[in-house]
Amino acid sequence: MDLRPTAEQELIVAMVRRFVREEILPLEQHLDPDADELPADDGARLVALVRDMGLYGLDIPPEYGGPEIDLVTRTLIAIEMSQHRAGLYAPCYGVFGGAGLAQLFEATEEQKQRYLYPTLRGEKKGFFGLTEPSGGSDPARAIQTRAVRDGNEWVVNGSKIFISGADKADYGLVFARTDADKGRNGVTCFIVDTDTPGFHVRRIVHTLRAARYATELSFEDMRVPHGNVLGDVNKGFAIANDRLSRQRIPYAAGCVGVAIKAHEMALEYVPQRETFGAPLSSRQAIQWMLVDNEIDIRQSRWLTLEAADRAERGEPFRTEAAMAKLVATESASRVVDRCIQIFGGYGVSKDFPFERWYREMRIRRIGEGPSEVQRHIIARDLLGASLR
Amino acid sequence: MAIRLEKPWQELASIDGLPGHMGVFELADAQGQVIYIGFAGGRSQFGLRGEIAASTARMASALGFRLEVTTAYLTRWQELLMVYRADHGRWPAENGSMSGLGRLSPV
Questions:
Q1: What integer pLDDT is reported at residue A2 of this predicted model?
Q2: pLDDT tens, A96-154?
Q3: Do A267 and A312 belong to one domain?
């Protein structure tokens, strides 16, 4: 397998790298260290620039107006886009746009008219409501939110937690149990308008990610039309599972990008900083940290691109995506931690981005399936329940 | 953690003794009504002390304050604003018209 970038990929990567360094980093100098949004006028100006670059809406399929860029190239771009302070959770502050809830590409035409197209036009926002207080790692069993059919409607009762963006959304995908006896085959996905009576955003959940909170939702006799079932009744888990696997590749790529940026900053710093009459770069203890960083970055980059390559070619990629997510999140955590050690007091101050990356990187080992679940997926495939 | 700041109001004379930490604060008028919700972030000079002093100097009707030290100052600030709007149906007078915040329906 040859994963060396093509000449075209190198051009695109160089363009995005220049964009980050010339447009994002200067603006970021003036923002709060925990900010994850640009002032509106700066955001609009940069969106226009990205459109001119032909890179707006990277993960929108071409038939819906997105650029025709393959997944490996998109992964290379994602690695570049995350190389700034807010880059892990707000790569380039969102000015490259996105598809939002990709599950809606499989919706009925009527659902697309009401939810997908307005989302692509930037007129509506959606949220993804899967995790519940009873758990998130095993959604097929943990989902206790119940939906009961009543004529041409479903009556939904239950709660969700750690849901991003629900308080600002116009609609969301809510997963509910519709058959108590069927496990993963008893879960249905509903498109829920957030102005539906019985829909409540009960509270904010503060986390290590200080710029953006999660929310806790409750549903009290919330009536959802049958026409808002996404896909088929009792087939919702497949929708959730597909999203979880696909999401792991860009999730890993963001970690690789931050690790690269942190490592680059350390490489620039160590020849300048002197201790006991010699630069840090001459100290073997520091050299070995840098070597370990380099190895961590190369292996996570390779695994992430391999997962993207398999997905692009239409081959099974669940194991590869799990490996990429596992290795990228854990190795990037180590890289950022080593860089903090190298920078000393500056490393933990808000003068530099390391402390934010350190906090946010800790979440990455839990979000989108914790490391243990990734190992569980890989082990299951190794031991015979293989998807290959 | 309580979602509303329910500490007693402090007098402006005590600002000089405040910590330089990051956090959130509310300012009150003579009737003890919240008129402004602010935060001291990672770039605030002298943290809460500096931000509260600057805000009260700007707002003549601010006669009291209360604060909460937190490193999650951005999300806590947004939460306090959203809870205020849920309780009063509007934003605090000195915050003006806020945009980009979500809707909460706290119990």
A1: 76
A2: 987 778 888 889 999 999 999 999 888 899 999 999 998 777 777 789 999 999 999 99
A3: yes
Identity of the residue in B75, B100, B104 whose CB atom sits nearest the CB atom of A210: B75
If pLDDT is split at 50, 70 and 90, which confidence band does B1 have? low
Residue A352's CATH number:
1.20.140.10
How many CB pairs (< 8 A) connect A and B? Answer: 62
Higher pLDDT, A151 or B100: A151
β-bridge partners, A35: none
Q: In angstroms, what CA-CA distances link B42 with A143, A265, A374, B53, B72?
A: 39, 21, 35, 17, 10
Rounded to 5 degrees, what are φ and ψ at A214? Answer: -100, 170
Min distance A277 CA to chain B CA atoms (Å): 33
Strands A126-129 and A171-177: parallel
- Active site (annotated) includes residue A368: yes
Domain that holds residue A276: 240-386
Same domain, A224 and A343: no
Catalytic residue among A80, A216, A306, A368: A368
- Please report whether residue A132 resides in a domain: yes
Using the beta-carbon criterion (under 8 Å), do B78 and A201 form an inter-chain contact?
A: no
Residue A121 placed within a domain: no
Please give, rounded to a whole number of angstroms, the shortest distance from the CA of A121 to a CA of chain B.
Answer: 18
